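Supplementary Methods, section 5.1.

A reviewer requested that the exact input to the structure prediction be made available. We therefore reproduce it here, unchanged from the version used in the analyses.
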Amino acid sequence: MSDYTISKIYPNDNFANKQIDKLLNEEGIRRDKNLDYTCGMNDDDMNIIATGSLFGNTLRCMAVSHLHQGEGLMNEIVTHLMEIQFERGNTHLFLYTKCNTAKFFGDLGFYEIATISDNLVFMENKKNGFSDYLNNLKTTDTDNAKNIAAIVMNANPFTNGHLHLVEKAAAENDLVHLFMVSEDASLIPYSVRKQLIIEGTSHLPNICYHDSGPYIISNATFPSYFQKDEATVINGHALLDITIFKSIANTLHITRRYVGEEPTSEVTGIYNKIMASELPKSDIECIIVPRKEYESTPISASTVRQAIHDNNIEQIKPLVPPTTYTFFTSPEATEIIQKIQQETNVIHY
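The structure derived from this sequence is encoded token-by-token as follows.
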């Protein structure tokens, strides 16, 4: 172990953060927009020669100066970050890395979940984490189901657009596996999003609900720090999603995936195009469903959030199921409404 010190870097430490940005840039890494802890390793002259960060239960933005590589400093950074995670109560950890560094993290106790061409490896620190997740999905009797479909849904919040998608899939299939994105990276907490999805679809008898867990990654938390541009980020996220989904589909005998069209979102459009191209290669049909409209305008969760932000709760009534409207007009929603109204921009994922 080196004699260098590792310390937390605070957001208002401009000098240290400039050093970290410079170090990351020199090592071909961009500072990720989603970080909740950053550390730096200082040499004797207080120069930052190694760094690493955290977001949720992931390790991110790890780099060692090329002048100090081969000294075991990355091992110390990873050990420090894992200790911070354990102090937070996070024991199931994840990281994204380049293919040429995957073996290094493998030697530190991380195991590959999925690899995307020569670009990205998604890893975890539990040997059987993903296989256990897949085994736990096998809770539904599918012997009598010929057509089995899946939907992955964030529902921030659950709208009539989401309901239309689920109802269409339920009408066209014997069984629909509905995966609810359980990362708490949205304005509306997962516990509420889950409640509204289940209440809003309770009239459909052939829905099987699943928490997405840590394996179905939202685009709000997909890393961008070693992706060269936004198009690469979108492409990488879509391919990772598809790779993981293929394993899920194989486990549950899913042959169709339903996704909602998003005519106003270039990101979602690219994402859907990649899925439509890649999923059929694994005999999974990708069905892109046109958005349900209200007064000739596609219904979106962003529109609902904007109405809540502007304190026009009554405007959301024709856009959401009665169960969602009832929730947002109840005292239970007060804190969430306040949080949405305090946001500057609510038109996002």
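The mean pLDDT is 90. These observations are discussed further in the main text.
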